[in-house]
## 1
Amino acid sequence: MKKTIIFILVAAVILVTIWFRDGHIMGTAEDSLIFYNISRFLPESQFAWMEHPGLGRVTINLTAGRPTYEALTFLHQLGLANFLIQAIVFWFILVSAGTGIYLLVREFFPHLSSKYALLSVLFYWFNPLSLVNVWNRFLTDYIFSFGLLPIATFIFVRGLNRRSYLWPFILVLILPLYSFAFTYLAFDILLWIFFFFITLLFFLTHRQLPGKLFYIKYFLLSLLLFSFTNIWWISQLASFNLFNNINSSVLNFDISGNLGTLDVLSKKMGNLTDVFSLTNASFVNENSLYWVRIFHLPPFIVISYLIIAGILYAIIKGIKNSSILILGGLFFISIYLAKGINPPFGEIYQFIFANVPYLQVFRNPFEKASFILSLSASLLIGYSVFNLSQQLPKFRQLLYITFLGFIAVMWGFPFYTGLVFTSPESPANNPQIGYKVQVPEYYQEADQWLSSQGENFRFIGFPLGDEGITYNWEKGYSGVELSSALFSTPGILHNTAVPYYHTLVPQIQETLLTQDDFLKLANALNARFLFVRHDINFELRKMEDPAAIDKNLASREKNDEIKKVALFGQLTFWENLKWQDRTFYPANKIINSPSQEVVELLSVDVLQGDVLVDEQENLQLQDVKLPEISYEKINPARYKVHVSGAQSSFVLVFSELFNNAWQASYRDNRIDKHFRGNFYANGWLIDKTGEFDLIIEYLPQKLLELGEKISVISYMLLAGIFILLVSRKIKIKRS
Amino acid sequence: MIYWFILVLIIIFQRIQKKKDIFYLKPALYIFIIGALLRVLTLNDISEFLMRTSFIFFIVGLVLSYETK
């Protein structure tokens, strides 16, 4: 055992040394570049509302990642290089995954030699599902899930096997180490579906009633402890229903749309010919890199099938063994889930999917179920090679070396070479670059300069496009736009699926290029600076030529609308000379609109107290002198607004994305009239006069704070109970 | 629908014949191997049909194993 653990520790060091040997962080796809400055992402987990992108949005279960963010921010503050922090995380994940698999194999097959358990470890690390869906996909939450699943499953199974209630306590106590995994909602659900099936299979393989009852109680206790200790982020999921703000790309409850996606993806990736060979059918196509195509040549497919045939043979031979029966059951459940609504019996999957809203996250069944498929296949592979060796004793060594060679050498090849971190898009298609990124220093300078200008404004980056961006840096980047990673000031740099925001953003650039009144729109968005970046591959991303934007801005400079104020490398900053802080502002000139269109903002002068409002709000206000407004930002989800000199009713506009859960209150009394104004913002009708204070807060923040208290108390209680239980056990052992 | 039909046929057969789990598991493996061979020969449709049939046989075999456990 000791030797295998040492092997796992050393092999993980070697792998991360290869990956990070030249000192670059890595990033791509939807994950942005969180390791560029991990501390910048901490607020996203601390508050129920975040200011990025541009107009703000709900954080939902990003709050789950707080323990991970806190730990990594601590390392960042110690002065550890960013790439080193990422390397440490990857090492930790590989070690967790490897150790978890090893311990699980020993738990299910106590008499199996370590060398066969080692095969399982290597299989879990390098199999095509891990290769494609975890490492090549390169999403940090997936990577954490990959690391957590084996170790969590081991602890859960250990408790079931030993019939001890101690293990659920251990399980929840280790979870904060992997909290980032829980920002992946599908994994949160998958983990408990998986534990449910494990419990069910233990239940079915044991005859006596007391044992069966224990399994039920054990599962419920585990779920209960998990729920209490993680209530801080689970409450954020619940708040989606409580506050009627379910419009989000994360929790998309559009069932008919999701059913369509599920159907398409099941047909594409859910064929059993692919699922059985652990192949992601969408990974290989005419654009695939050469090494991907090699992996899908017939000899590789044959060997993949042979490995699975070996597993199936082991299931048949060992069917009387409870461990095999449980693992065989898990393997076929995983296959069933991975194929989605494809036959056979896909109707059951479809029925459950369509009737349980939270299961909408399983609209890509292969990707989600591949975690448990990879795990269950890994646990069986070591035993299956052992089983084959028993059947063919003369070929024992040959069989072992062949399997080891295929898994460790052939499947491991993209990992040793770093090819696993390449993809068909430029610049990641260059093996010298892959997912490696080096952000030019001028971004740091630009960020510092922006921060030095204050905290009461936004900026808009041009050219403006959709989520995807490609930077032409020496070690470039291709993936989701990096606004949160690069700048601490909230900026509008890309479009994304956030309500109102996704309608508004495409019209910003169009307005700049075609309308004279652009600054009215910029003021309504509280945008003080405009900046143009010349270091992006605008042609590849079908974006506007930065030179055309420059030309437009230069002509506006001549009209004294804007002024070029700073230049950092490839970034040019222009200041909106008409800007005034409009985070909060009083308004009494109501511009009624039947349905609030973005273009109508061009007739709204927020500097003169205008506000665009739905005509059904039926607002009529006196045109008297507007009150003075000042405010204090307590955190992104809470503000204190001071009003003085209010002579009559007015509208308080808060230029943050509209959401039902934003609330204004005066001395704990809620202000009822809350509506959407200026297309995207919040407005409240304030009926008070004179001088007074208002509190503006995003209500789920209260829930988050309460949840944090409950979670901390639960953890302390659990730790206390755990220590008591362990000391009692030790006493009993001694006596 | 054909796979539901296959399942119903197997259940009826099992009710009458009372076979052991291994009776379904072994053919499931053979069908899987034939399916895999056909997949390598790029006969994808028939291969997929065989894989699905193999899957049903495995499920039936496993359920019987749980019953007799």
## 2
Amino acid sequence: MRDINIKYIEGQIRIPSACGLSGYINTRGELTSGGHIVDAMSVMRERGNGLGAGFAGYGIYPDREDYYAFHIFFEDPKAREETSSLLYNYLDVVQEEKIPTRKVKNIRNAPMIWRYFVKPKEEYLEEDVSEDDFIVDLVMKINSEIKGAYVFSSGKNMGVFKGVGYPEDIGEFYKLEEYNGYSWTAHSRFPTNTPGWWGGAHPFSLLDWTVVHNGEISSYGTNVRYIEMFGYKCTLMTDTEVITYIMDLLIRRHRLPVDIVVKALAPPFYSTVERLDEEEKNKIKAIRAVYQSCLLNGPFSIIVGFKNGLISLTDRIKLRPLVAGKSGDFVYMASEESAIRELSPKLDRVWMPRGGEAVISMLEEKRILV
Amino acid sequence: MERDRTLKTIDAEGLHYKVLNEMIRESLTDGYQELRLLNVNGQRYISDGLTFPQSVLEVYGTPGNDLGIFMNGLTIKVFGNAQDGVANTMNDGEIVIYGSAGDLAGYGMRGGRIFIRDSAGYRIGIHMKEYQDKIPVIVIGGGSGDFLGEYMAGGRIISLGLNTSEDEITGYFCGTGMHGGAIYIRGKIPEYKLGKETKMIDADENDLEFLKKYIMDFSNYFDLNFDCIMDRPFYKLIPYNRRPYGRLYAY
């Protein structure tokens, strides 16, 4: 176990549970400033308690789009030194810098926050090890072996910005309005079971996968045991982390289509399955049989971001809220309609997806349809 | 001038819910009969615990969660969609929504009425209760999500399913844990959508008398044709038992 400096531990203060989510995508890939999603989160201020907030933006590093962008928290210079030597050993580092931040009154105890634009060195890549696999292994190694270092973002042309504070403060701290992305997600945290610390803020990310989550994963133990068999290590002391790795495993490595994956995470009840037609019934039963250990039990609503789109999903009996909206090329998802209205007062359509029903919104750009 | 004392408009843009609620309370206490809130977006607990049975509050925009929570009397008209928890533990008053409502509308409601023009979310009327003449009523114009009337102990829910496909009039698990009150459905829903504790029977003459009163108000509020709405059979969901879990924990 790592030592963490935290004042707020479950049981020592009263915490009514909430958490706020929002996300949007321009399906034609048009870029918008990260400032908008900060505004959307501010109308849901009551959903968080200042113990964690974060954002993910896609399309924000067009000049370095071929490089993995590592965002890393260092708790001390030694952690940075150790990590740095590891990075330079295995990767071609084309740029390293402190992530620009502002001084914000309510943000204290920030770790050192750096970013590196990297590529695996040719000599380490073998026939059966892809660049992505190599990066995943390296992220797992740093997060589990180097004390005080956490890679919290490792995708291409995207980045996570998170910390302890309210979303408005974290957005201001990271100068989020200076980044432009085609898709954004955000989270405001109300931690209930686990400590509020910088690494524990959402989104949780690996490669270009990001997950923001409201709820509790009561199947966490089962889920972790399953993904550990594939080399993933859960080190961040929060249940949400495991969803990120499940996404990477099922979509990138097992190459399952998104609409199948959401059925594995939130499968319909057997009583519902019985009424489906034969083909659909067999499909759902097969998914449940093979990926039983990926079923997420307990109340949740999540928004998953990746380079090709956004997915939102709630648990089967909808114990956490989620609203979706559409306006032109924009698709919005949030815990509350007001957050969507803040982004776009006029909507073509606004709806509440049913429990277990995913909203899948993919980027229409040609280059990713290949 | 007397006329000026009756109507007041408040621009809610950017106001925190505490400030907004203080302004509402002060204005009603000052004697304004009608308040109009403009640019409401996400402010929670609007009209929390207020007792102004003669006054009307018009909300333009998207009010936040727990609209009308603990309210003892006031008419609220929402021109937009309401979010989750409308009329949470409300004692009395009326909420008319010219749009849809989110999850949990009527949560633990003890009295008063909610009229929802369009659809409603999950768990509408959860834990509703009644006592003597305090009988809360929810009328849903469109369809609703799963767990309609969950753990319902009293009160009435009227689900009209207007402009809604047959499959979407209600979700699954209707009346799960229900042990009092009644849910009226315009049209029949399949047996598999009922919770274990609930059965469906035909609505009788007394039921129709009751329904007419509320559906008349509903059609007046939303300018709909009363006769068209009544021109379909109504069914009634009631609990099998007043203590469905009586034998679960004790023998």
